[in-house]
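Action item from last meeting closed. Structure (103 res):
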């Protein structure tokens, strides 16, 4: 597996809208592009960290090279800054995945 960690600086007052856009974008990526899902965390006021998981670096790279930029356009509208902090290969995975319906 392969994972990417993102840092999002959210515009004041746009937290809830960003979270909803993240959920919708992740669902599309999972259903159309082979992504395995994501987690989104609040790091502090106006700062969120997202963790996206892929079956392989190759599947992620294919998505990166060919996806419609509109998938991320809505999310980016709620941000003042977006950074891809880390691109990582998974060496051990002990997380329990219990999918929960979101909003």
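Sequence:
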């Amino acid at each position: 597996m392969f994972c990417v960690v993102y840092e999002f600086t959210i515009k004041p007052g746009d937290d809830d809208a960003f979270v909803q856009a993240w959920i919708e974008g992740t669902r599309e990526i999972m259903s159309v592009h082979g992504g395995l899902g994501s987690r989104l965390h609040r790091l502090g006021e106006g700062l969120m960290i997202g963790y996206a998981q892929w079956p392989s670096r190759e599947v992620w790279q294919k998505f990166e090279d060919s996806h419609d930029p509109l998938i991320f356009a809505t999310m980016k509208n709620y941000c003042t800054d977006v950074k891809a902090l880390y691109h990582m290969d998974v060496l051990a995975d002990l997380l329990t995945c219990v999918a929960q319906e979101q909003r």
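Note appended to the action item: Strands lie at 2-10, 37-44, 47-54, 79-89.
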